[in-house]
Amino acid sequence: MDPYAALRYKEFNIFLLVRFAMVFAWSMQFIVIEWQVYSLTKDPLSLGIIGLMEVIPAVGMALFAGHVVDQREKRNLLVTCIMGFSVISLGLFLLSWPGLEDSWSSKQILYSIYALVFMGGLVRSFLGPTIFSLIALIVPKKIYPNAATWSSSTWQLASVLGPALAGFSISWIGVHWSMCVIFMFSLIALLFLFQIPKKPILNPKIGEPVMQSLKDGLKFVFGNKAIFGALTLDMIAVLFGGAVALLPIYAQDILHVGSEGFGILRAAPAVGASLTMLGSTRFPLHRQAGKKLLWAVFAFGVCIIVFGVSEFFWLSVVALFLSGAVDGVSMIIRQTILQLKTPDNMRGRVASVNSIFVGSSNELGAFESGLAAKLLGTVTAVVFGGCMTLLTAGTTALVSPTFRRLDLQKDIDEHEKD
Fold this sequence. Notes:
mainly alpha, Growth Hormone, Chain: A, 17 helices, globular
């Protein structure tokens, strides 16, 4: 297959620019918030609460959001999501205004940040399913795997640059103007998005009752062994392997590397994942996908354990880099499974379930890591998470031989015939 097949479509290139700008802004914003909150509180649990504040609305609204996405026009829905994010980033910019602490207490600022993060969770519940559904309307079915790889690679590249710039930006221009940069990137995403025309609604059941729609979506996901297996495996691994939520503690109190070192640590996993994804455009991962996914999750757990016990900055960076590289394998395989095995009229609902299983497990993992660090200590919490990831991969390999034998070549051949 042509490794640049999806890039030959102009609208897809515009879509990638929109996705890059949004992921860059979102990932940078999360890092700046983490730094600001820990600087205000010096409490690891406060970092976990950031994730909890986002995951509650993201999970609570996910299924309803999937129903709405399947019923509505996708381009305009994405416009609404980006506008919502812009309002939130503007609010965070105002909350970081120099001198605000003279008139507001630390608790007032902290609770206001949590409130805006909660609003961001509402936006995110719609954003993921909308983006997933829009891709399928921009490129033909036969190049879905290639489009999914480039889309995921763009996500990872933005995830590299966002945290890296956040760390340096905090050092160079401070939290306040870093928030301004984030707001500007959201406006750039909005500007590019208007260059993509509206898309048709492919759902033949427009006006379907909400409960019936949700029931059909859940029934499809839980009935498809490949989708359900991939989502479950990734969810548990991310939930217990969420060491990145504790990086401010490692940067400030364990490795003593400051905000610039924090940016490097935060970017390392995304650098590894980006290289994996770029490589996969030439060396696809769809053959023996089940085995590759299981080995990737197992290796991820090993990397997290190494990071947890390391007291050397560059060893920690390497461990995080490798964790991102193997996590990139997991992400590509999962996204390929979803794109190949999801019918057009259910993309919003399936993507919403994916956001509950995988996307929101990042925030739940952040809360679990923060709570575990509070109870067990930071290093013990990270090592425990890595061990649970190893156990998950090993158990899945033993109890699910069907998933272990999963191969996606037949699905790709069928799509190429369409």
